[in-house]
Design goal:
CATH superfamily of the largest domain: Ribonuclease Z/Hydroxyacylglutathione hydrolase-like
CATH topology of the largest domain: Metallo-beta-lactamase, Chain A
Helix content: 10-25%
Number of helices: 8
Strand order of the largest sheet: 15-14-13-12-11-10-23
Number of strands: 23
Oligomer: single chain
Shape: elongated
Length: 404
């Protein structure tokens, strides 16, 4: 049992200075103490404390986003609340945790501004090591539990999507852009949106996105393809704006009535053609849909010049992929691939089957999912790129473009 010395402990409690938090814990006899919480994803290696000459264990951390965070001390295997912090509460599983609050996001704003600058200086195709360091900084913010409700991240996304809109209004360029999570814009002859969302209606996010963003996106796209109804893949506001502008929106035929009136339902295996580009929907199976009740499609696109793109949406590709190789560009989910098969060998087998010339890691940092329950970090994408270096792979941040 860890004993407390009240004479020393009474003046010690979490010290919050802007975005810096210093923890103290009095346990001179303890051999190891960690401070773990939602700010470091309860990771043992991220919370190691150091003992000073008075037997007080301390650790200072940077918490960039404003919000309320849970934590506990782990002293020689024993979980303990902070005895000098009166602020505590229950988490979603009914467990009591100590709590602290951060009231400023200045650190996050500065870091995100720096990220924008570094990404512009190191676009896709630049040194992978440099880019990976940038994405590690992004994970440090996007993996925080309160990231979905952050005004700072909302503004970050809005700045990036406006900048992308400026580019597509000025010029055309053979490229693929990752708009959010697993939404992409393929520019190869036609400019085709695939599961593009602008976050206004993503579950758990609901960011404030002005109407002009949707109108500009709708104006820029020649075609929009939607694989299924989940709100991180189907943006009702964007689809409605495109229909209102007389643009084509392709949706699964079986559930066409659940999309805005005017959307075009297409059957599996029956190509839709527009200006030399051929789009085919193929049956997919959602990763967590064992009974196959959810209608989901793999989107197979052959551009006018023969460039072959495949978007796998949330399909569990360990159960097969009804696409003929080779593929020029593969847009594939790289986190939470299958409930039965580990992600890395599953992705490796997918590459061996489809033989893509290029691939982009998808469905990373989906803020609508809780941390540790589907919000896969960019780190996973970079590990997959590294382990499959004989293929040309890329990790993209919001509204980044990879020239094809």
């Amino acid at each position: 049992m860890i004993e407390k010395r009240e004479d020393i402990q009474r003046d010690l409690e979490p010290s919050v200075d802007g975005n810096r938090v210093t923890f103290h814990f009095d346990a001179p006899e303890a051999r190891m103490v960690n401070v773990l919480g939602t700010f470091n994803h309860w990771e043992l290696t991220e919370g190691v404390m150091r003992k000073n000459e008075d037997g007080i264990w301390t650790r200072t951390v940077e918490v960039p986003l404003a919000g309320c965070y849970d934590y506990k001390f782990l002293a020689d295997g024993q979980w303990l609340l902070d005895p000098r912090n009166p602020d505590y509460g229950r988490d979603a599983k009914g467990r009591y945790n100590s709590r602290f609050q951060i009231h400023t996001s200045e650190r996050a704003r500065a870091l995100l501004a720096d990220v924008d600058r570094r990404l512009e200086a190191n676009p896709p195709g630049a040194d992978p090591g440099t880019r990976r360091e940038i994405f590690e900084d992004l994970d440090g913010i996007l993996q925080l539990p309160n990231a979905p409700w952050s005004y700072t991240l909302n503004r970050h996304f809005l700045r990036r999507i406006r900048k992308y809109g400026d580019r597509v209004e000025r010029e055309t360029a053979a490229s693929v852009a990752n708009i959010y999570c697993h939404g992409f814009v393929l520019e190869r002859g036609l400019r085709i949106g695939i599961d593009v969302v602008a976050t206004r209606a993503v579950w758990g996010v609901y960011w404030d996105i002005p109407d002009d963003v949707y109108l500009r996106l709708a104006s820029a796209l020649d075609l929009l393809c939607i694989s299924h109804l989940h709100p991180d893949h189907f943006d009702y506001h964007l689809a409605s704006a495109m229909v209102a502008q007389g643009k084509t929106v392709l949706v699964p035929y079986e559930i066409r009535e659940r999309f805005p009136s005017g959307a075009v339902g297409i059957r599996d295996g029956e190509p839709f053609e527009k200006e030399g580009t051929r789009v085919t929907f193929r049956k997919g199976i959602h990763v967590y849909d064992e009974r196959e009740r959810l209608v989901l499609k793999i989107i197979d696109i052959v551009s006018g010049d023969g460039f072959h793109t495949v978007h796998l949406s949330d399909h569990d590709y360990t159960r097969g992929v009804d696409v003929e190789p080779p593929v020029d560009l593969l847009l594939a989910k790289t986190g939470g691939i299958s409930p039965l098969v580990p992600s890395f060998p599953a992705f490796r087998n997918l590459l061996l089957h489809l033989e893509p010339k290029r691939f982009v890691t998808g469905h990373l940092n989906e803020l609508g999912h809780p941390v540790r329950a589907g919000r896969e970090p960019y780190r996973t994408g970079w590990e997959i790129v590294r382990e499959n270096s004989n293929y040309e792979g890329m990790v993209l941040h919001w509204c980044e473009e990879w020239r094809l």
